[in-house]
Amino acid sequence: MSLYAAGRRRVHRSVAVGIPLAVLAALVTAGPAAAGASAGQAYVTRTATLGDIPLGAFSNALLPGTVDDDRAVDLGGIGSDIYPAGRKGEFWTVTDRGPNGQIKVGGAKRRTFAVPGFDPTIVRIKVSGDSVKVLEAIPVTTSAGKPVTGLSNQEGRDEAPYSYNALTPLSYNPNGLDTEGVVRAADGSFWLVDEYAPSLVHVSARGKVLTRYVPKGLKLTGADYPVVEALPAVLLHRKVNRGFEGLALLPGGDLVLAVQSPLSLPDTGAGEGSRTARLLRFSPKKKAVTAEYAYRFDPVDVVDPSEDDTSELKISSVVAVGDDRLLVEERTDKAARLQSVRLGRGANILGTRWDDDSTSPSLEQLDDPAASGVPVLSKRLVVDLGAVAGVPGKIEGVARVDRDTLALINDNDFGMTDGNGAFDAQGRLVDSGVETTVTYVRLPRDLY
Q1: How big is the chain by its Cα radius of gyration, in Å?
Q2: Which of 81, 251, 318, 334 is 20 to 30 A from 400, comparing alpha carbons?
Q3: Can you give the three-state secondary structure of 15-72, one letter per residue?
Q4: Phi and psi at residue 38, in whole multiples of 5°?
Q5: Given phi > 0 = left and psi -120 to 50 = alpha, else beta, which region is 237?
Q6: Position 214 pLDDT exceeds 80
Q7: CB of 407 within 8 A of CB of 46?
């Protein structure tokens, strides 16, 4: 049975967790790929789009009864990350916490959850012609096999959750995850990163959380899975809704985690004006962070000539391209640039004064960290995606296809927008029209 825009049909709820979801294949149309470009320029070679899959049908096929009303929202948000699945044209992707937005009430913004029963999901896709097809979906679950949900964890630390119209408070859930990065280990298990804690999450091949690694001192209680305080305490100063965003798997098995934005250290103002973010190296064997690095953004108007707000800079993806080499995507919502960096031993700031939240001025407050003795990672521009015709906005996932080709995926936010206009008078989504798209970009030279 197809689940297309032509008809929002109900699917049979016999699909088991983690098995192929052939019923959820999507047919799409997309604009033609660029036929080529001038020598020395990157260009788009393929564009493929995910079709309309009703979110309620998708969710209830995996975890029956979790979504009673999807408010006409289709599956989206799978563009939080993309990772090669081992077969040509196939990738692992991951959703974020689900359809969410912000509405002002009494002058203050409230975080809304349009479909609070939605569960973050690992999705295997195939790029076939100009369409993106769903091959398999694995919901993330607790030790007891229950949905973790995407709801906020801790009152006073995370945004208070509200219903779709921002009028009804929702309950916090310590199990909730705002997943933003995915890689698959050699044993078939998955590693995810999350924005709430921020946390690194080890998940079984069938989606069960094995361990959630969080910053020291977080004191997250009540979760229905093991929680281990193994990350630097300085991460407790992450900006709200800007925890871990990027995740890479190095050839030797270590992981690299990227904090999306500069820490709010010592306060919000310092973080908003800073251009220095942090990367962490984590050893699954040691179950510990082994290195921390300072990453310096380019000025915001260099990354995005239409933007002048430094706080709009983000790291959304990191990709391993060698034993100690990464591509780092620094972006705004409209533009993105990929930088090549090398994780040298001399750049490790773990355990130094820059890893201590009592240091003043903090790393985030330094106008020129290198001049203050901070070993900032050196970088080299690989491609300015904002200058490549056909690349959509809000690219959050980057994967290697071959030596000179990348696959990019955008986060379409489930077709949601912020504000009271996101839903009509009947509480149905007013779709933004932004689709989930996988875009192949060929580079003028290979990545090695």
Answers
A1: 21
A2: 334
A3: CCCCCECHHHCCCCCCCCCCCCCCCCCCEEEEEEEECCCEHHHHHHHHCCCCCCCCCC
A4: -65, 155
A5: alpha
A6: yes
A7: no
- The pLDDT value given to residue 35: 46
HSE-CB of 260 using CA atoms within 13 angstroms: 29
Neighbours of 57 (CB within 10 A): 23
User: d(Cα 391, Cα 408) in Å, to the nearest integer?
Assistant: 8
Encoded amino acid at 274, one letter: S
Q: Identify the sign of the CA torsion 70, 75, 76, 82.
A: positive
> In the structure encoding, which two tokens stand for residue 237, read together?
């100063």
Contacts of 156 (CB under 8 A, 6+ apart): none
Closest alpha carbon to 79 in 434, 448, 441: 434
Percentage of residues of the chain with pLDDT beyond 70? 91
Rounded to an integer, what distance in angstroms lies between the CA atom of residue 145 and that of residue 17?
Answer: 10
Taking only the tens place, the pLDDT of each residue in 89-128 is: 999 999 999 999 999 999 999 999 999 999 999 999 999 9
Distance, CA of 149 to CA of 381 (rounded, Å): 38
With a CB cutoff of 8 Å and minimum separation 6, the contacts of 213 are 199, 200, 201, 202, 228, 229, 230, 231, 282, 287
pLDDT, tens digit, 9 for 90 and up, residues 181-194? 999 999 999 999 99
Q: Tokens 């924005």 map to which residue? A: 195
Of 279, 343, 363, 368, nearest in space to 317 by CA: 279
Strand segments (E) across 37-188:
43-50, 82-84, 90-94, 100-105, 108-113, 121-128, 131-139, 161-162, 179-184
- CA–CA distance, 395 with 317 (Å, rounded to integer): 9
Spell out the domain ranges in the chain. Answer: 22-442
Q: Where residue 447 falls among pLDDT bands split at 50, 70, 90?
A: confident
Helix (H, G, I), strand (E, B) or coil at 237: helix
* Cβ count near 305 (within 10 Å): 12
Comparing C-alpha atoms, which of 115, 112, 113, 133 is closest to residue 124? 133
Q: How far is CA 442 from CA 58, 86, 148, 383, in A?
A: 33, 19, 38, 10
Alpha helices of 188-325 — where are they, by DSSP H?
A: 268-273, 300-303
The order of strands in the sheet holding 395-402 is: 82-84, 90-94, 121-128, 131-139, 43-50, 437-442, 405-410, 395-402
Copy the structure tokens of residue 397. 């996932």
How far the first Cα of the chain sits from its last, in Å, is: 44
